[in-house]
Amino acid sequence: MTATGSKKQKARGLFKRATGLLARFNALQNELKAVKNKLERTEFEAKLFREINTALTSTFELQEILPLILQVMTTLVNTQGVSIALVNEEDKTLRIAESYGLDPKDIENFYIYYARINTGPFKEVMEKKSPSFFGPENNLYIPLLMSVPLVSRNKVIGFVNIHSMYQNKSLTPDKIALVNALASQASIAISNAQLFNAMKEQATIDPCTNLFNFRYFQQKLDEEINKAAANGTALSLIILDIDFFKKVNDTYGHLYGDQVLHEISKILKSNVRSEDTVCRYGGEEFAIIFPNCTQKIAERIAERIRAKIEETTANDRRGIFKSPVTVSVGVAEYTPDINKTMLIHRADCSLYYAKNTGRNRVCGYDANLETEYEKYLPKNNY
């Protein structure tokens, strides 16, 4: 081999080595870039998780917590369809409390096939208390890739469900880890919200009748008066009293008296609108707040309730009532020139008149009743 050939061969060797080093350098650059991106993504996710945790712990309102969880799930995990189903402990059923990207037909199928906890795919997830994965082989009536139980105090309170991924991307191990971490945070936030709402409900619900109590009545009436004053809308109030209730207690005992209160409460709730507020005012007295309702209409509703109570208790096929029960009702309407105290006074004034002119009747407020109220008040004839 000539000197020239030797140099060319050496040059080719050097070029090959340089090419190899350059390829390795580029590969290392790509690896470093990937590591950098992963670190940045990890740092971003860690920062986002801190922000999420702060947001979730700053409120006890489920209607704020649940959308936030799904929003983060969609952003970080790239989910297309996702839902949160919560457990109803009373009847052991599931309800979709929040969802994103789910077809209405899928929601319908969920309630048809999987609303009961003791059947379907969620039974397995609940028993295992760990995430489960699903595919076409499971032959489900809804799309479902992954279900993660929301566990609080060793009890499953719901599920985070991944139904589909954006552009049909796969659930990678990293994304699965994110879902599990989010579900863990969600469990704490949802459990705290449920506990807070249960405590709030206990503070506003009368345990005997399951109606709102007097404290809540005062707050709600303030709220409705403010709305009526601001919007110029009608607002009426009725106060209802069970006739001769002391005699009921003295004759049949207080346990039966409590049963009567409970049954009358159910009749009241089933004969008003969803926007009306039924409260136990105290003892055997009840109050109902009727927003967007004039006194004339409230009187008709009150008469319907009075007749329903009389009819139900007099023709009781269930054997709950030992004797017929009747009620007296006073009705009044809010006007801009009066305050809450005066509105209650007017309803009370009407009730007094109803009770002292025969009972088992409805009386609407009239200014002339004021003198009658003063006349009957000292009798305290209840």
TrEMBL record:
Pfam families assigned to the protein according to its UniProt record, in alphabetical order: GAF_3, GGDEF
A GO biological-process term: negative regulation of bacterial-type flagellum-dependent cell motility
Keyword terms of this UniProt record: Coiled coil
InterPro entries, sorted: Diguanylate_Cyclase, GAF, GAF-like_dom_sf, GGDEF_dom, Nucleotide_cyclase, Rev_trsase/Diguanyl_cyclase
PANTHER family given in the database record: DIGUANYLATE CYCLASE DGCM-RELATED (PTHR45138:SF9), REGULATORY COMPONENTS OF SENSORY TRANSDUCTION SYSTEM (PTHR45138)
Keyword Transferase (UniProt): no
GO terms assigned for molecular function: diguanylate cyclase activity
Record-linked NCBIfam families: GGDEF
Superkingdom assignment: Bacteria
Name of the protein in question: Diguanylate cyclase
GO cellular component, one term: plasma membrane
Domain GGDEF: 233-367
Coiled coil location: 18-45
